[in-house]
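Re-run with default settings, no changes from the original entry. Doing this only to confirm the output is reproducible before filing.
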Amino acid sequence: MKKLLFALGLAVLSFQVALSVPAEPTEAEMAALKKAFAELRPQQGVVVLKGGLATLNVPQGLQYLDPKDAQTILVKIWGNPPEAASGVLGMLVESPKSAVSAGGWGVVITYSEDGHIDDKDALKTDYAALLQTMKQGMGEANKERVKKGYPTVDIAGWAEPPHYDPSTHKIYWAKELAFSGQDRHTLNYCIRVLGRRGVLELNAVAPMTALAPIREKTQRVIAAVDFNSGNRYADFNQSTDKLATYGIAALVAGGVAGKMGLFKVLIGVLIAAKKFVLIGIVALSAGIKKWFKRKADREQLPKS
């Protein structure tokens, strides 16, 4: 327990830089944003991820943005630092325009190769008790955040409790988050696909008001993404492949940081160290969305 709480604090403090909100853009900056937006090339149909690791059949009603276009959204439009998009395999959006509209959302796709996860604890885990542990850990982390002058982030509860399918080795869950100083709660919807050597991670971040459409569309996403032959869960070879040092409960709580055995926390909306940081996206994208809303009458975004 102490290790988990300690790691929760480390993880949250490690990503404070992501919580700044961009200022009103100049005309030149707005022109650059519009140009970046116009250059996006959304895709549909079958998409092969990470050189053949997995295949995504883009669900109807969604579009895929490749790693370059995902970086444009995450860095140039949402305002995250460039390292935030490192390792991102792409995004799923309703449309590029929707990703920067009020109430818009996107699913960020990454891959974590921490080893093969033994799923034997999946159906035995008390997720209500795990939630309380996660809340306690966030409470400890928030004490340090307050000392540093940063907003607190609290877990209001499960927006969708964890559901694991042992036949497909896929799990999904959603957390409702409360950021201090914000009236609206934030939704963090997570999908994990277990594979031979690691996990495909799909994360949607949006206002809680988007729960219903995200729930409906993510069910399609869950069915649409799979590891390819040779990388599937059943392809695990215990003689040659590495086992992860954590199970399903730790995956939901955040994951384990390899050699040290500490939890790489997915509390709030973060992904593990040196991967993609989502904790600031809601605040950062809110600033961008205000720009477009205020300028909507005189600055028309390209149609998608």
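Confidence is low (pLDDT under 50) at residues 1-23, 255-299. The longest helix spans residues 127-147.
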